[in-house]
Amino acid sequence: MIARLDSDSPQFLSALQSLGEFPEQDQIQIRASVADILEDVRVRGDEALVELTNRFDGQSVSDMAALSIGQDQLLEAYESIDELVRDALIESADRVREYHEHQKASMATGDGWRYTDNMGNHLGQNIRPMSRVGIYAPGGKASYPSTVIMTAIPAQVAGVNEMILCVPTPGGELNPTLLAAAHLCGIEQVFSLGGAQAIAAMAFGTEAVPKVDKIVGPGNIYVATAKEMVFGKVGIDMIAGPSEVVIVADDSADPKWVIQDMFAQAEHDEMAQAIVISPSEKLLEVIAEQLPIKLAQQKRQPIISEAISSRGALIKVKDLNEAFEIVNKIAPEHLQLAIEAPEVWLPNVQHAGAVFLGVDTAEVVGDYTAGPSHVLPTSGTARFASPLGVYDFQTRTSIIQCSREGAVKLSRAAAILASEEGLYAHAESALARVKG
């Protein structure tokens, strides 16, 4: 039920590559559907949002008022949920806030930074929070209050003035824990909107939904495609694909834990991916034998089964050095090092969204309570992208102030370069400062 790969096989690299591929025809059809939705919302605004929500989420609302969730509803949800759940939300939020406060402190503090060079020129940057950010929290196969915390709190720590939350509510059913998380994070406006139409609403703005500066948060392939297509109108955090984990394990790992960690990732949706890489044939054999038995006990068994059989893999390697070579080819969203002395091997990791060190560190703590945001680069984009953080909600403005001496010297060099490029007005502008 799960692919078995061996790095010694001549077909290994092609088999590894195929694990991350998606049908191209499906992507073409999705882009066409998303383009129609974006244009409809751009042109018709709230009217289109109501019609699309009724169609895709099985609702029967007549106007946007029914899709706007007020602060009183958020507070009511916060007060009504189980006390243990509320305490867990608070602990998660506190830890995420603490982590991102540390992150902010490690960056340039205050309004930015400045220095003065040897000619008396003042240089630096102003750092400012964005004014309004849109958050998308998935709500299809599962509801994700954790995503609200993991996106809103880094924005809040960065100093964002206003946060807009869109969440799909199939059948009109609101998740009270998600609303409680929105209340806890101080989100100003919440709309029960999902899919590409929610992204369109936040990107273009409608009568009811304000236009935002940036959209963050994961979603299905329609959401990811919509974010890709509105980039440029607004900023986006990343184009997120299905969730994924790579587990590097040796004989010190408990196979029962490894299997459960695989299931934790695979239960997100049928496109999720769980891969185990190990030099231990014995460990991989035990996992392969026990996996079907453990799968039968899972509440989300159909989803896990599809994900494991279609995109999962057990990969046998010669040694851990080869394991990390493969890890860096995959550049996974989540990387668990269920090995002895994981910190010794950490320098071998070049590309990963988040790394979980040691057999006691489950990826699931990163989803909820560790502190870093669980919004991470997927589908190999950890090669050039980073986890969501305070820096994603800030803009930087370069500051240049020339002294008289600096104006003359820098302008003379600038005029020479401008003339070389054939931009003569540039050169004359610079020379004006040289001539005085």
Tell me about this structure.
The protein has three domains: 3-23 and 242-383, Rossmann fold (3-Layer(aba) Sandwich); 45-236, Rossmann fold, CATH 3.40.50.1980; 402-435, no CATH class. It has helices at residues 12-18, 24-44, 46-56, 71-80, 83-106, 145-158, 176-184, 195-204, 221-230, 255-266, 281-295, 301-311, 320-330, 342-345, 363-368, 404-420, 424-435; strands at 3-6, 68-69, 112-116, 122-129, 132-136, 162-166, 189-191, 214-216, 235-236, 244-249, 273-278, 313-316, 334-338, 354-357, 394-401. The longest helix is centred in the N-terminal third of the chain and has 24 residues, at 83-106. It has 436 residues and is α/β, with parallel strands linked by helices.
Task: Count structural domains.
Answer: 3
In the CATH hierarchy, what is the architecture of the largest domain at level 2?
3-Layer(aba) Sandwich
| Gyration radius from CA atoms, angstroms | 25 Å
Helical percent range? 40-55%
How many beta-strand runs? 15
Total count of helical runs of at least 4 residues: 17
Unreliable residue stretches: none
CATH class of the largest domain, named Alpha Beta
Strand content: 15-25%
Which fold name fills CATH's third level, the topology of the largest domain?
Rossmann fold
With strands numbered from the N-terminus, the spatial order across the biggest sheet is 1-12-11-10-13-14
